[in-house]
């Protein structure tokens, strides 16, 4: 079946000028707004640049930014906080996301509606999620102080945003609330791809609900679980808006992750060369971590 | 029979409790908005106001430049979605149908671009836009948001085109269509639902951005997007939580509505490129 244009879409090797032509605009745009900026940021991370301007002559090459970075306690502090945040938020997103998915995956009337509700926070913009939780954890008339006093967890009202531990906890809660629906949605999709036959066979063999969960559900979910875990961790690792709007990285740098530190250095202190160095390190960690965890070629990410 | 009724009841109770607990923050935002301001400063808190002040939404629109912010957000989102969709539709189609030298590496690069931290990219973009004198203009946001959207939309669309049988184009070409004509007249119309879902997904990505707006637009008040505007309300000396909540609801509403339509397609968007 040959068309007049010498193109047969059913043939396995189909090189054609049209293929290149269709890719050209994307290549051009991505080159301009992603690749070129990336090159610029690696470039200025090796220069002593305060405010990035492209129409100025290059500064001399220096590794000072990286030397300063690795000897800076702030950097190691930020790395530690980022790690803590990634572990805690991902863990709870998973428990909550998997739990809600298993619950809503049961067959009942109104299931579609429950599915919709349970993942609703996904659709709330991060900044609005911060507004909600900043108000709920308000020091004077916030709901949570009242609830926790009623429950006997605390004796007097807590000023959540001036204590390092408390502020970190509120950031975690906000991120978990914003992040778990993603896990839920992914797990539900995974659950629905498990054939009913598996469960029927297990029932015939007399497996109880717990055994079915451990021996069928969890193993079948493993591939989705892996991808989801990486995507959640990368999200926490790179997130800026929630922490920046909520605490600005404070108090006493208790919530200053690598992303916040990068931004503060670039647009708070106008040390863009130094900030780019932090950003480049962050990117390298992102790429390596996701590769290691997937343990496969990057085309599966 | 009795046991299964019991089982059903427990299930409903559990679903209700979990949903209520998880959705409570959204409910609380709503209650805060419609409560009279003095009721927000009493303990114990009231979980439903005696006299709901529904007029708060109209009032906050009159007193604050909410409509301006929403308009700017909409312009930025529509602009970046049009830009991203134009290049992504073509690229996604090409990646789906052609074997182009370097096409696969481009696809991989686009995929890894999803991992770029915005806080890294924002620095060189700031330098570039400063040189081009775009800081403070919505164009800076449109271009910056395209860096967020293109990696998602390209892979979503490639995945969508992969599900459409090639026989459709072959038939069209037998009927005398050019390859380009087959794509425009046959494949794109068939893909309309996928295109719409992808565009809406891009809209949500743009609408939710804060980092780029904060960096490029802070000194240009008339171009503030909704998310940037709301943070300035939160930063005021005395936070008026009632007004902030009302404004937040107005800002979240478009995305919440899109979510209701998009839910079916969401998994495709979230996992775009995740599986082969």
Give a structural overview.
The complex is a heterodimer of chains A (about 300) and B (about 280). Chain A has about 300 residues and is mainly alpha-helical. Chain A has one domain: Orthogonal Bundle (MetI-like fold). Chain A is about 70% helix and about 0% strand. Chain A contains twelve helices and no strands. In chain A, helix 1 packs across helix 12, helix 2 (about 65-70) crosses helix 12 (about 270-295) and helix 3 (about 75-105) crosses helix 7. Chain A is globular. With about 280 residues, chain B is mostly helical. Chain B has two domains: about 1-55, no CATH class; about 65-270, MetI-like (MetI-like fold), CATH 1.10.3720.10. Chain B has helices spanning about 1-35, 55-65, 65-95, 105-115, 120-130, 140-160, 165-175, 180-190, 190-205, 210-215, 225-235, 240-270. In chain B, helix 7 (about 165-175) crosses helix 8. The model of chain B has no long low-confidence stretch (mean pLDDT about 85). Chains A and B meet through helix 1, helix 3, helix 4, helix 5 and helix 7 of A and helix 1, helix 3, helix 4, helix 5 and helix 6 of B.
CATH topology of chain A: MetI-like fold
**Helix count, DSSP H or I runs of 4 or more residues of chain A:** 12
Q: Could you give me the name of the CATH homologous superfamily of chain A? A: MetI-like
- Assign the CATH class of chain A: Mainly Alpha
| Total count of domains of chain B | 2
Uncertain segments of chain B: none
Termini of chain B, distance in Å? Answer: 45 Å
Strand content of chain B: under 5%
CATH superfamily of the largest domain in chain B: MetI-like
What distinguishing features does this structure have?
heterodimer; A: 301 residues; mainly alpha; MetI-like fold; 68% helix; disordered C terminus; B: 276 residues; 2 domains; 12 helices; 74% helix; 0% strand; globular
